[in-house]
Amino acid sequence: MKKSLLSIIGFAVLCFTSVAQIPNFSFENWTNLGTYENPVGWGTMNNFTKLASFYTATKATPGNPGNFYLKLTSKSFSTSVVNGVAVCGKLDTITMKPKSGFPYTSQPASFTGRWQHMIFGSTQGSVIAVLTKWNSGLSKRDTIAVAAQVLSGMAMSWTNFTINFAYKSSMLPDSCIIDLRASGNVPTNNDYLWVDNLAFMGSAAGFKEEASFLNYFLAYPNPSTEQVTLSLNLKSAQSVKIEMIDLTGKTVLVKEAGILNGESLQVINVSNIAKGIYFLRVAGGESIQTRKIIIE
Predict the structure, then answer these.
(1) What is the pLDDT of residues 265-289, one digit of tens each?
(2) DSSP letter assigned to residue 248
(3) Domains within the chain, CATH numbers bracketed
(4) Would you say 57 and 40 are in contact if contact means Cβ atoms under 8 Å apart?
(5) What letters, b where the CB count within 10 A reaches 16 and e where it falls short, cover 211-238?
């Protein structure tokens, strides 16, 4: 049986030299809500689907290790399929996007755990952890690091996974969002993702943010619906490439801007990009700068 290291109250953060724990990381704690249960500290689609008497996040046993694990299953409803989604924090059940995460102030090297998964359609689910920090000057959240992996093939028995964080800043984060999905953009009935024993491992302390080739880099409007304007100011002439990357790490747009120097405005058409959170990556020489953008 898993042993609780400390009581987790109000999303308190547990930090260790080699392991930093996640609220209800082993899914041993569940809240009974009458007709269904939810894992403590996690948002799911259950409070939305309860009106139709089906649930995409369920408690299953035995855990690996422990008594319980989280079972996410995409399920048919009317003419559509509801994705099996869980967020460590709060989930917007209308947009199916995370609303908030939990306080977190360390720099782990990787996101680990155990999983089983299977799809019956064409789009795989995903496992994502995003570390962020509030930028009071710009009144927005800056992305510090991302650990993201789209599921591949199938895992029909419990298997360990390790996803390394890609750091975009040397600043310490102040929060984390973990987003688990049984299916991709086109859910299929009975796609599933089972998870247990989540943890942050190692330390990225000592990470150094590379020197920028830009004096500044702004992206607006943010959120955007039709187009995004990048305002760049380069320190010297550089051949610049612009990429837009989704939370799974997939590149959805590439623009070769050519040789730029000094002030430059680059307009990106995003009218055909699916709604969601993306990263705009501007590469010049061997240096890369990244900004988060929301498409609505």
Answers:
(1) 999 999 999 988 888 888 887 677 8
(2) T
(3) 14-201 (2.60.120.890), 214-295 (2.60.40.2550)
(4) no
(5) eebbeebebeebebeeebebebebeeeb
